[in-house]
């Protein structure tokens, strides 16, 4: 007789998001803040428009003023800069892709760091990769973390993967985590973030597998990357946590290779992990989109609280 | 009998570069400056290594100390940051592509603006696109322009396309220029730069043709973009200047469509314009690589002169 796997807890993203959304409602009510988020839709992407509606509804529940502005893509840069300069706006969100590639990354850097709720401008990316937790060394200015990798971190915290009795930067010590996807927007930042928190991360993409970690005794101040001579068939059975983020409906995580008692998290829009993972996993989080939306609002509230610091944070000019 | 086309002047890039290189030699000698450029090679690209040799030789002639550092690509970010902090280094050059895509653009933003001889960090790109000629409004700090589009501008100046009797920002007024290529690194910045100087620019890429200009009376403060309902066959015969930058050995500019007396400039590494263009053109510049190398050194000397300003120009942290 096979050993009985104890029951898998399936945690919907909404459940983890709810805790943060309740805090947001409380904090926004308490401060009587009129927090305003402006989002720009400059493509004809139906999915983006749907996502805008989700954000709108979620913001309404939190007491956040949400405004969707549809603009021609050639007007987007000027519109972003006008919003940077408009004191009634506290956060700016852009639905990408607009032009795609380097032009979009240029636009991400046109958003003022003081309004960049997505955390995609260079300042926040740089601080995240380099394990710098505050802006320009100021203890009163915590650096922002891009929403999607931040949501994955919060999900791991919600699953008690973080050991909060350890110092910050070591709370994932001893944990082996596989992240399937190494895109510049989510997979690579997430691997770096988890390694900066002490994990050994296998970062998998279509070409190769890399190891992100801070050395055996956390002796590095930030993650380093090295080649991995193992194959997916070797790393999945030794991973405590597996996180998937492949933006394709055709990709499926090979469940038979997973360790018994694994924590399985999908942060892709596509369903990368079949439900049968519950036969192996201790915890399964099938989608984290709602947590991402909550983190967006959390970043927004933080930036709202930075608004009167009149701190010069510029990317250009 | 066909009208006789007066003879075409073929101007090699070296001839235009020489003027600037002589000025550099003079200025570097005069200040007794020990100007040092460090370049990073983190790929196994033979062409990049060859280009490094060209830069090295050119720097040697100008009296610039040139050091090539070969690093593992995973060490590149840390190496760039160490060079940012090393006062003996005045300029940093990276041979791209390294990782490609967004990761490379992230690395471009890791180079301190005070050492970014290529002018590829967000600060300089932003200022160039937005027609902002000084850094943070300081008249003593001229903003840098990325080397390749800057080289194209200097070639146009060398061909007397700029009317220097007009105010800055209007010196290309009345000129129609076609730029074939709209990449984020060269074609798009060049189109914007020329439009910011007053030209009407047709920006051609594989998908469409766009118009970059500042309106009929230069009433805009910076270029704007709009769709063009004309085809290549219609814009080439009305273009005073045609600039090609297609990075493919297969592309050839259709010479029969050019206006008699056109100025034809190729800034691609590939030979986009056949020599028979001399039958139509007034001026033909077959390659501008040497001018780009000269502009790199010119940017370097400018940054060298900024070094003691101790001006805070950061992209992150």
TrEMBL record, chains A, B:
Limits of the Tetrahydrofolate dehydrogenase/cyclohydrolase NAD(P)-binding domain: 146-205
Chain ranges of the Tetrahydrofolate dehydrogenase/cyclohydrolase catalytic domain: 11-118
Single GO MF annotation: methylenetetrahydrofolate dehydrogenase (NADP+) activity
Keyword Chloroplast among record annotations: no
InterPro entries associated with the record: Aminoacid_DH-like_N_sf, NAD(P)-bd_dom_sf, THF_DH/CycHdrlase, THF_DH/CycHdrlase_cat_dom, THF_DH/CycHdrlase_NAD-bd_dom
GO terms classed as biological process: one-carbon metabolic process; purine nucleobase biosynthetic process
Annotated Gene3D superfamilies: Leucine Dehydrogenase, chain A, domain 1 (3.40.50.10860), NAD(P)-binding Rossmann-like Domain (3.40.50.720)
One GO cellular component term noted in the UniProt record for this chain: cytosol
Keywords: One-carbon metabolism
Pfam families: THF_DHG_CYH (PF00763), THF_DHG_CYH_C (PF02882)
Keyword Plastid: no
Domain of life: Eukaryota
Protein name in UniProt: Methylenetetrahydrofolate dehydrogenase [NAD(+)]
């Amino acid at each position: 007789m096979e050993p009985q796997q104890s029951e898998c807890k399936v945690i919907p993203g909404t459940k983890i998001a709810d805790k943060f959304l309740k805090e947001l409602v409380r904090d926004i009510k308490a401060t009587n803040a009129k927090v305003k988020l402006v989002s720009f839709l400059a493509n004809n992407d139906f999915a983006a428009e749907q996502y805008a509606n989700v954000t709108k509804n979620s913001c309404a529940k939190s007491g956040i003023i949400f405004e969707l502005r549809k603009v021609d893509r050639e007007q987007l840069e000027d519109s972003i800069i006008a919003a940077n300069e408009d004191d009634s706006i506290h956060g700016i969100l852009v639905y990408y892709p607009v032009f795609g590639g380097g032009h979009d990354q240029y636009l991400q850097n046109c958003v003022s760091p003081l309004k960049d709720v997505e955390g995609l401008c260079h300042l926040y990316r740089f601080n995240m990769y380099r394990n710098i937790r505050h802006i320009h060394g100021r203890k009163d200015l915590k650096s922002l973390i891009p929403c999607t990798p931040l949501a994955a971190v919060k999900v791991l915290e919600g699953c008690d993967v973080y050991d909060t009795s350890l110092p910050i930067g070591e709370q994932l010590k001893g944990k082996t985590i596989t992240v399937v996807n190494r895109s510049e927007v989510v997979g690579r930042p997430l691997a770096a973030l988890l390694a900066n928190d002490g994990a050994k991360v296998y970062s998998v993409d279509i070409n190769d597998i890399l190891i992100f970690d801070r050395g055996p005794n956390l002796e590095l101040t930030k993650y380093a990357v090295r080649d991995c001579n193992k194959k997916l068939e070797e790393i999945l059975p030794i991973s405590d946590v597996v996180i998937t983020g492949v933006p394709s409906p055709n990709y499926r995580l090979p469940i038979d290779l997973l360790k018994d008692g694994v924590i399985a998290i999908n942060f892709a829009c596509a369903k990368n992990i079949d439900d049968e993972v519950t036969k192996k996993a201790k915890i399964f989080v099938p989608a984290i989109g709602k947590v991402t939306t909550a983190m967006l609002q959390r970043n927004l509230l933080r930036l709202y609280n930075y608004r009167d610091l009149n701190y010069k944070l510029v990317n250009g000019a």
